[in-house]
């Protein structure tokens, strides 16, 4: 056990020394080979987290209720406020609507403030919204407004769908580039790697904004040969699962 | 006081809780494909059905049982912005979120949660977000009210004390040590000093000095001022439960049960028990009961926790519980159902919910679930269901049908069908399971008779629309497709009917539906679109021109241009003008006429390929039927085979009469079917990489002078 951990850490150190993406990773995604993770509610923290440089922790979901007033509300998800002292950590919010009322912004910004007060190394917010490619320009406008509300030193990240790189209107995609600090493109759906994901990756060369590749633990990943040389590539984020899953 | 009563519980209950990502099951995306069938053992976000089913979200099953128990109701239809069709009026499987939004009773004025967005004290917290600081604003208001109602405190002291309480602006997440607190000076009256002591307790509580807080509140536990006495006794419990969890939520925010302060937890239980004994209907009775659930959760006491939830579901009164049923269902799901074993649970409702989860099977995109419950394990639960033998029999029958594929065994547990009449949710579920068992025995007419018999007494919300799916699925497999569209049919659900037209209908039925002036306009447009599409793509060329003259009512403009109705077909597909650049083709009408005259001519095949390529028709849903076990999955009655581009290109290459220009273009397009991934993106039978290499070689040598050879640089 100890031996394996040490080997993994050595590989990680090698990866860091070579820069993100230079590591030729292929095959089944193992958490120990990576240093950035999504940790979703109900997923038990695992040892690989100890070496994490970046963590994305689910904090809630913004959703349109069908309540009497049709209100859009923020429902808390995930765990208590973390107590991290190293690396960087992101507050992750899912959204099924972009019609956010003022209190949703204040709740999210207040949560961010509480993380900072607790001493966590907060990198910023990540928004996980399933934006269809044809609505990317709407999404870019929403994100520009959100960005303007963020306190100094708070970055903005979004998850993206793989087809953004292959089908997306490149002007709309480039417009995101002026607004977000990174896009994490997900190679999985549900908890499985999307079959044939390589087909989408072939057009990553079109990306003109910093992007990471989102993988799912236990899923499949073979890096395309030109990825390491892509100047916009910023590494990987692995969605962690429970061991039994 | 109502505000305080309302506010406290959820705030503290959720404090530091580890809430799961709801119905999404931590998937990290929202993609879910509706499966139009009733026989579901795979869990998926969007595939809940209105009867007890292993495939349902556990919270839907629990809600259905609570409705039967009279502890929840399907509420009035909600209004939405923008308006959407009510899900309860549709036969479609649905999401937990859509269902739960209809479940009540809700606290008046509150959509589906226990906290109020309108309350300034909570506006900085999301629904369900945990922090003991959430009660600060309400607590300050209650303190001021109690002080105002205490004539024994001089006015100047009241002013100073109220201001001091208002000045407390705690940060419950500050990583620093608790700051010392100095109550306002000049408070000398006996009662004023008691309120001052309460202030010290409050400051300690919010500031994290729990020992100091305990000392202050203990000093007030016998106060002659009734509000101070009651509140201090309750606060002793809150102090202890918060102290118990100091440091228990580790670095990433998850609970570490071994870091709980067990002594403080015991103290919290004793304090709340004592409070409830003294004040069974007290200001904080519901909150104290909710916090006792938290004590059992923190203490990792699954059996006690299961008992707590059973009690809470059974006792919705304002002194017993301060969360709406929908919120409690989600809490029970997060804290209990996803954690415990059946052996820990005695309550039939919770146990049945757990058993249905244990009957799930893995879907194609899931990791394998833990092994399903065995029949003998289920049968051994009989004593726990002594009060609810029908529910128990239902579970046994479900196991026989879903996990053992034994419909006769399932029927043996369902007894004789009851005479027609109103059905509760279990009664409805039993009949649905009977129908599914009959269909598993291919007893189509028996099942159909059952569905029809249920229809008049089914609940208009959910139950009746679902029977449209049941009936249509049955008719589809029993040669009754035309009956579905006959006058007087009971099957009215628009989506169900459209699925049958898209997948199953042959030309005669489609023509009949386009012409049916009494049919819904959308149905007529879909019928026309499907008819013309399949005329072209399934080689019914001679009929196309005549069919194209059939008229359907015009489509209205979409309410929201960004969100067009996904069911509305785009008839402009058939106005294809052909291609004037690249490989030149005439318009669709002329092309179809040419195909009718010579369906094998290379130019005609290549132009049909252009039509498909330019409209991205490879893999289009109309090219194939729905999965065989879903509605639309029976063999289609439309003749012919769907045109497939790669097959057409191969046909051109095999045609000795094909002109060189056509052969060059067929090679170019066939090779491009594999761009850029190396996987065949065209419809049609794939070929080995060596074949593609040979195609490329042939294009570059045999047709080196063609534009296509010059354009193509790679093969894949």
Structure description:
The complex is a heterodimer of chains A (245) and B (716). Chain A is built from 6 helices and 13 strands. Chain A is α/β, with parallel strands linked by helices and 245 residues long. In chain A, strand 3 and strand 4 form a beta hairpin. Chain A is globular, with a radius of gyration of 18 Å. Chain A starts with a helix and ends in a 6-residue tail after the last strand. With 716 residues, chain B is an all-alpha fold. The N terminus of chain B is likely disordered. The interface between A and B is large, with 72 and 64 residues.
Defining key terms:
heterodimer; A: alpha/beta; two-stranded antiparallel sheet; globular; disordered N terminus; B: 716 residues; mainly alpha
Give the biggest sheet of chain A: 8 strands, parallel, barrel
Cα-atom Rg of chain A, whole angstroms? 18 Å
The helix tally of chain A amounts to 6
- Counting H and I runs of at least 4 residues, what is the number of helices of chain B? 30
Share of helical residues of chain B: 40-55%
Question: Beta-strand level of the residues of chain A, as a percent range?
Answer: 25-35%
Q: Globular, elongated, flat, extended or rod-shaped: what is the shape of chain B?
A: elongated
Distance linking N and C termini of chain B: 72 Å
| N-to-C SSE string of chain A, H for helix and E for strand | HEEEEEHEHEHHEEEHEEE
Q: How many beta-strand segments of chain B?
A: 2
Structural class of chain B: mainly alpha
């Amino acid at each position: 056990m100890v031996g394996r951990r040490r080997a993994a850490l050595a590989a990680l150190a090698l990866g860091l020394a070579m820069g993100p993406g230079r590591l030729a990773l292929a095959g089944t995604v193992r958490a120990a080979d990576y240093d950035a993770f999504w940790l979703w509610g109900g997923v038990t923290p695992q040892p690989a987290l100890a070496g994490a440089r970046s963590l994305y922790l689910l904090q809630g979901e913004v959703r349109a209720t069908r309540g009497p007033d049709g209100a859009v509300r923020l429902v808390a998800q995930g765990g208590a406020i973390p107590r991290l002292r190293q690396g960087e950590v992101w507050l992750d919010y899912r959204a099924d609507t972009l019609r956010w009322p003022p209190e949703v912004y204040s709740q999210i910004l207040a949560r961010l403030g509480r993380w900072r007060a607790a001493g966590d190394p907060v990198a910023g917010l990540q928004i996980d919204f399933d934006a269809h490619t044809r609505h990317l320009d709407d999404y870019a406008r929403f994100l520009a407004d959100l960005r303007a509300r963020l306190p100094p030193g708070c970055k903005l990240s979004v998850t993206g769908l793989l087809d953004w790189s292959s089908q997306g209107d490149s002007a709309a995609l480039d417009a995101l580039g002026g607004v977000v600090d990174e896009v994490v493109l997900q190679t999985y759906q549900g908890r499985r790697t999307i079959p044939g994901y390589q087909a989408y990756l072939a057009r990553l060369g079109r990306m003109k904004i910093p992007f990471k590749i989102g993988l799912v633990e236990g899923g499949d990943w073979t890096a395309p040969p030109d990825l390491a040389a892509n100047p916009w590539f910023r590494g990987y984020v692995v969605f962690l699962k429970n061991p039994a899953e | 006081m109502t505000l305080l009563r309302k506010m406290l519980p959820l705030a503290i209950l959720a404090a530091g809780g580890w809430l799961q990502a709801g119905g999404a099951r931590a998937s990290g995306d929202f993609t879910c494909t509706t499966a139009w069938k009733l026989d579901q053992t795979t869990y998926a976000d969007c595939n809940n059905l209105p009867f007890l089913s292993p495939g349902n979200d556990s919270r839907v099953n629990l809600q259905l049982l609570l409705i039967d128990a009279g502890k929840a109701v399907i509420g009035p239809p909600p209004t939405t912005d923008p308006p959407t069709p009510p899900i309860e009026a549709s036969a479609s499987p649905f999401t937990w979120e859509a269902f739960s939004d209809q479940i009540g009773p809700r606290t008046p004025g509150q959509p589906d949660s226990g906290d109020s967005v309108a309350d300034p004290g909570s506006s900085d917290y999301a629904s369900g977000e945990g922090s003991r600081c959430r009660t600060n604003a309400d607590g300050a208001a209650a303190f001021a009210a109690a002080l105002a109602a205490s004539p024994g405190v001089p006015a100047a002291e009241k002013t100073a004390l109220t201001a001091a309480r208002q000045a407390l602006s705690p940060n419950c997440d500050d990583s620093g040590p608790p700051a010392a607190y100095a109550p306002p000076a000049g408070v000398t009256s006996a009662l004023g000093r008691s309120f001052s002591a309460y202030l010290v307790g409050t400051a300690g509580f919010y500031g994290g000095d729990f020992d100091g807080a305990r000392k202050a509140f203990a000093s007030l536990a016998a106060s002659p001022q009734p509000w101070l006495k009651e509140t201090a006794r309750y606060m002793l419990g809150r102090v202890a439960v918060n102290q118990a969890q100091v440091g228990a939520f580790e670095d990433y925010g998850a609970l570490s049960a071994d870091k709980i302060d067990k002594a403080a937890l015991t103290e919290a239980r004793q304090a709340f028990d004592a409070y409830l004994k003294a004040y069974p209907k007290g200001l904080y009775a519901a909150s104290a009961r909710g916090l006792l659930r938290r004590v059992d959760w923190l203490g990792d006491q699954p059996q006690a926790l299961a008992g707590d939830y059973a009690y809470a579901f059974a006792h919705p009164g304002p002194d017993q519980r301060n969360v709406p049923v929908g919120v409690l269902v989600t809490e029970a799901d997060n804290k209990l159902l996803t954690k415990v074993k059946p052996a820990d649970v005695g309550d039939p409702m919770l146990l049945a919910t757990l058993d249905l989860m244990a009957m799930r099977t893995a879907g194609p995109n899931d990791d394998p679930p833990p092994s399903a419950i065995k029949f003998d394990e289920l049968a051994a639960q009989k004593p726990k269901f002594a009060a609810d033998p029908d529910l128990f029999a239902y579970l046994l029958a479900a196991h026989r049908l879903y996990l053992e594929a034994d419909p006769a065994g399932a029927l043996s547990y369902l007894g004789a069908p009851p005479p027609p009449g109103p059905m509760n949710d279990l009664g409805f579920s039993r009949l649905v399971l009977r129908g599914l068992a009959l269909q598993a025995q291919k007893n189509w007419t028996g099942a159909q008779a059952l569905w029809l018999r249920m229809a008049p007494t089914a609940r208009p919300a959910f139950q009746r629309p679902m029977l449209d799916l049941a009936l249509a699925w049955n008719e589809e497999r029993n040669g009754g497709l035309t009956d579905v569209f006959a006058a007087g049919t009971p099957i009215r659900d628009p989506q169900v009917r459209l699925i049958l037209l898209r997948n199953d209908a042959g030309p005669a039925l489609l023509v009949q539906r386009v012409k049916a002036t009494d049919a819904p306009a959308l149905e007529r447009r879909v019928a026309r679109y499907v008819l013309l599409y399949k005329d072209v793509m399934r080689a019914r060329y001679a009929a196309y021109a005549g069919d194209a003259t059939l008229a359907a009512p015009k489509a209205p403009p979409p309410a929201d241009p960004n969100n067009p109705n996904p069911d509305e077909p785009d008839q402009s597909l058939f106005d294809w003008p052909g291609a004037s650049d690249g490989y030149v083709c005439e318009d669709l009408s002329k092309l179809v006429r040419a195909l009718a005259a010579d369906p094998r001519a290379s130019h005609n095949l290549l132009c049909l390929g252009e039509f498909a390529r330019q409209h991205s028709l490879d893999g289009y849903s109309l090219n194939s039927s729905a999965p065989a076990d879903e509605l639309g999955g029976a063999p289609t009655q439309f003749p012919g085979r769907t045109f497939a581009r790669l097959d057409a290109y191969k046909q051109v290459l095999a045609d000795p009469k094909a002109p060189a220009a056509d052969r060059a273009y067929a090679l170019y397009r066939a090779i491009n079917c594999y761009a850029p991934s190396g996987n065949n993106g065209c419809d049609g039978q794939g070929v080995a990489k060596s074949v593609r290499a040979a195609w490329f070689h042939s294009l570059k040598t045999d047709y080196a002078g063609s534009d296509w050879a010059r354009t193509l640089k790679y093969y894949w």
